[in-house]
Amino acid sequence: MKNKIVIIAGDPNSINSEIIYKSWKKLNNKVKDRIYLIANYKLIFKQLKKLKYKIKVLKVENINQKSLTNSLKIIDVPLAFKDPFNVSLKSSSKYIINSLNFAHKIVSSNKIKGLINCPINKRNIQSSKKIGVTEYLASKCKITDNSEVMMIYNNRLSVVPLTTHIKVRDVSKAITTNLIIKKVNTLEKQFKKLFKKKPKIGILGLNPHNAELIKDSEEVKKILPAILKLKKIGINIKGPLVADTTFVNNYKRFNIIVGMYHDQVLSPFKSLFHFDAINITLGLKYIRVSPDHGPALDLIKKNKSNYLSLLQCINFINNLK
Length: 321
Fold this sequence. Notes:
- By secondary structure, this protein is α/β, with parallel strands linked by helices.
- It folds into two domains: 1-143 and 284-321, Isopropylmalate Dehydrogenase; 146-283, Isopropylmalate Dehydrogenase (3-Layer(aba) Sandwich).
- The chain is 37% helix and 18% strand.
- The protein has eleven helices and twelve strands.
- The chain has a twelve-stranded mixed sheet, sandwiched between helices.
- α7 (177-195) crosses α8.
- It is elongated and about 65 Å long.
């Protein structure tokens, strides 16, 4: 059971069938045998057929059911659709929420290596009042103190946004000394557990040039006090670093850069590493990873999608000790 890998097919209106197929072709039979896809069987079958991808798919009842070697095992989730590449928002939203709930239940109740979800358009889960998959799964794990961490991982550098899927105008209010301490604590403990080493953490300021550390800046009132407390408990952290120059060369001194908001760290990170990264949620009851990109609506049916990030997700989960 520990060797099983659960993948949520994700958004039906996406490149997901394409990247699943392309990743599948790169895997050996031992890894393929461990994979169970949470998806609508009919949808995946029709999408693969329209894309002219030749792959064996098999509907199974649960993760205990085995199949012929080299068959993609699909645990069926209901979905109403006519066009397999143009599913209505109402149907796709219900389908995605059901898939997330089903996968969470399976992974929580079994000794499974980890959960992967393929890209999902955020609007499909906004009715849940949780804006992103990170927050949604945290709520399913009954995490109520915002201590979960979204980490974009590359073996040369990882980045963490302190606030995730919120508007930029709300960032300053959301940042607190306690939030920084909680997030960095989760980050440090989980990073050591996963990678067997104590991380060197750099933390950015919020304002240009850290607002020159004037008295009423977020750096002085919130960020510096958190850094001092984290240092006292033995965490290797430095900052606040100046955001506009850290990613020129200074980032090489650290394992992780923590930023104050989503695009402050993800934009420079993706400029450096492109698709050579995965999204890891730390602090859940299980390891959850996902490709570091969205559903790419503009690339649907064009056979131009980059599958590297999904393949890295599968290899990461497969190699977990």
